[in-house]
Design goal:
Keywords: Signal. By secondary structure, the chain is an alpha+beta fold. The protein has one domain. The protein is about 25% helix and about 25% strand. It has two helices and seven strands. A hairpin with a 5-residue loop joins strand 1 and strand 2. It starts with a helix and ends in an 11-residue tail after the last helix.
Length: about 140
């Protein structure tokens, strides 16, 4: 019984820590917002939490590149180690959006769904999304 309670307490601490430090997929003021030329997709770069930074280091904050469809459903997420890695506007391609040397997120065929949106939110919260290091 005592071991089960300790296990539950440890799991609770892990979940609180993960929730407190995970970057948001819903941000009121994105660092960058870009809409595709056909207006069917939009890319938002959301700033994560940086608990301590020296002056001039605000761009070192982590973040998320979130691709959404026209209805706002999430089509893909890439975790960014530092916002400074995003140096220019995204390149909208026929099948994906690319941030040069940072990320490439493919469009969802047939559009995103509510279930797919929830799946991406869960993956983001669990930190099980692709990282920008994978695209370099």
């Amino acid at each position: 019984m005592k071991a089960a309670l300790l296990g539950l307490a440890a799991a609770g601490l892990f979940l609180v820590g993960a929730a407190a430090t995970s970057a948001p997929v819903d941000c009121a003021t994105p660092v960058l917002r870009s809409v595709s030329p056909d207006t069917r997709h939009r890319l938002e770069i959301c700033r994560g939490r940086l608990f301590f930074a020296m002056p001039g280091q605000s761009g070192d904050a982590p973040g998320m590149a979130v691709l959404r469809d026209a209805d706002g459903q999430i089509e893909g997420v890439v975790a960014l180690a530092m916002l400074n890695a995003v140096e220019g506007p995204p390149r909208w391609e026929a099948d994906a959006v690319a941030l040069p040397l940072v990320a490439r997120i493919a469009y969802t065929s047939g559009g995103a769904t509510v279930l797919g949106d929830a799946f991406w939110r869960l993956r983001t919260w669990l930190r099980a999304v692709p990282r920008d290091e994978e695209f370099r």
